[in-house]
Amino acid sequence: MNRSQRTFWRSVRQRLQANESLVLWVVAASWGSSPGKSGFMMSVAHDGSIVGTVGGGIMERQLIDRSPNLAEPILLKRVHQANALDGERSGMVCSGGQWLIGVPLAHKHLSDVENLLELSESGERVGIAIDSQGFRFCRDPKSIFVHNQSLDFQYTSAVSCVPTLYVLGGGHVGQAIARQFALLDFRVFVIDDRNDAPAMLEDCADVKQQCPFSHVGTIVDQGALSYVAVVTRAMDTDTCVLKSLLNQSFAYLGLMGSRSKIKRIFRTLTEQGADPEWLKSIHAPLGLSIVNHTPAEIAVSAAAQIIDVWHKSSSSL
């Protein structure tokens, strides 16, 4: 789980521990320009307080108002067009639409939520399943959403399958990038060879680890959910990191630096046996091509590029 998911499910757990009931709303599917995307969640307590969102606007307000009277799981179709059918019109006109599931949660679901939190934090792939019988926790879920004309449905989704951003370098830029991604749906993992680097001294990451830069290749996971930003303090440490990651496969690998520095690093990596195609895949310099000077501006540029890569690739996961 990333930080925002943990915050959400911990708030649900807290309500259930207090023997309070609530309603969980989930976006099971979406299309077009719907503001609520598949996987968005919102919890609504009996006092009307909410955590999370399913898209906002008048549609979300209607779901909040409906929640106190929801006694069993329900599937709703909401279309964001003025000419939609009466029973499906959301009140919004942004085009597109979404399928929404509402399910009541009570103290009996506490163990499901606790399992969800505990096992996801141990690294296990976990998720939720909802159907006409209610809500439950599940292991190693496959993403499923099926329904019929009678609105009987089955929904299963992983909640721990989130991308990880590895920030390799905990200096001022690494700190700014970690802060930026703490606001996004990424698990943030900062690595530096110094315990007193700025990002290592601040609560801006899900995980922080001190180790020699030559060892990062044994820590950083490869694969479609791994995003890597190399932002160490010097050319030598950047080179050391990239040697450790040599020819490994990631969804994104970016390197901060001037073009002259990058050329010198790439020349060294070529001598070390770097695959030319691997070098071409590195976003160097990292971030969108905008004028940026401060660590915060570099972080915004990097975040925009990484988000773009993530959304273009996530549909195939």
How would you characterize the overall build of this protein?
This protein is α/β, with parallel strands linked by helices. The protein folds into 2 domains: 156 residues, no CATH class; 151 residues, NAD(P)-binding Rossmann-like Domain (Rossmann fold, 3-Layer(aba) Sandwich), CATH 3.40.50.720. 30% of the residues lie in helices and 26% in strands. The strands form 3 sheets. Strands 3-2-1-5-4 form a 5-stranded antiparallel β-sheet, with helices on both faces. It has a 5-stranded parallel β-sheet with strand order 12-11-10-13-14, with helices on both faces. It has a 4-stranded antiparallel β-sheet with strand order 7-6-9-8, covered by helices on one side. Strand 8 and strand 9 form a beta hairpin. The protein is elongated, with a radius of gyration of 22 Å.
Short description:
This protein has 317 residues and is of the alpha/beta class. 30% of the residues lie in helices and 26% in strands. The protein has helices at 3-17, 57-66, 110-121, 172-181, 235-244, 259-271, 276-281, 295-314, and strands spanning 22-31, 41-45, 50-52, 74-79, 97-105, 126-131, 134-139, 144-147, 153-158, 164-168, 187-192, 207-210, 223-230, 250-255.
